[in-house]
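From the pipeline queue, job 12 of 40. The input is one protein chain; the requested action is below.

Action: predict structure.
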Amino acid sequence: MTLVTLNQKCKMGSFLALVLLAFQGKAFSSTMAVASQQYYQLSMAFLRYHQLAQSSAWQSLPTYDQFMLYKPEDKNALLAQLLTATGDHKTSSDPLYLAIQRYQRRHQLPASGHINKATYLSLYAGPSQKAQLIAQNLKRLEHLPDDLGRRYVMVNVPDYSLQYVENGEIKLSMRVIVGKPYRPTPLMVDTIRSIIVNPTWTVPSKIAYKDILPKLQKQPNYLKKHNFSLFQYKDNNVVNVDFDDIDWENINFNKVDRSAFPYQLRQSSGSHNALGRFKFNFPNSQAIYLHDTPQKYLFSRHNRALSSGCVRVEKPRQLAEQLLKNNRYYSSKKIDQVLNTGQMTTLSLHSPVPVYITYLTAWINKEGELRFARDVYNKDKLRRISMAGK
């Protein structure tokens, strides 16, 4: 696949010609279709927004405070003009609140149908900055392989989403929970090689020290309550430690640091386990993986940058079934049998599946709609504009 870079010093007209030339008469294979079509469609969106920024169809907005002083009819007329330019206000008879909702959904904002400050600031940024943002994401697409594979999993961190794609067709979509901004999910290309059903959870020392020790300080019975076992290394052996042998209440937690915590914590299998019932393994130096979670309610939140780095998936059972399709004898009934044992079981994939953890804050969805997401990890390098109302 020929990719047109945005580093080329050319006019917009020649850029369009280069993009069209790159894709003219291209017979997309199923394994290339999603990546190549995404690049082409996003290139067209870049051109639309660049041209919109230069046209009279776009009117610069006043500050938010000034806008709030407008008469209602003047507000609505200005909003209708701008949302028509962005393609969200379809016809003159289209209710304005529906156009606002479309715009909000496309920009990962709560779809209230009313102009709040967050929605206004997004409009205030204007098409010029949106074009810059699209250009950034085109560059990110260039770093993906031309051939993503016949089957693959794609995670988009800012969109909090996962897709399983087979032969160029999205077979499964779901929400995900990703790492907090101060514990970000790393971007990577890897391969899912196995699924662990009924996993135990060996707590990384960093999480033990930063997350669990503070809870122990307030709840000395926290480990027992959440089905943890305690281990310690002695004479090159792992030794089980009895909770009652430790005087938790008299530990000076202010003086315990990560290196001085001599214990290893392991949570038993079951619905209570932090990894849930499924763990999707692609061994890597950063100990990142996909997994289930018992905290299903978190998937309904708007902001889902909530984990310590790993990716929690909304539909782990469906994902496991898709990944195991090429394994002989592993039907849905067989997965039920393994789950019902309650025992940790590793299922190796006969056909390992690539996984791409990406960072796209602008992309085209399967309906052909341009979408934007919040730059949750502050990776977008854009020309900064003054904030409206500040």
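Job complete. Residues 159-200+275-358 form a domain with the L,D-transpeptidase catalytic domain-like fold (CATH 2.40.440.10).
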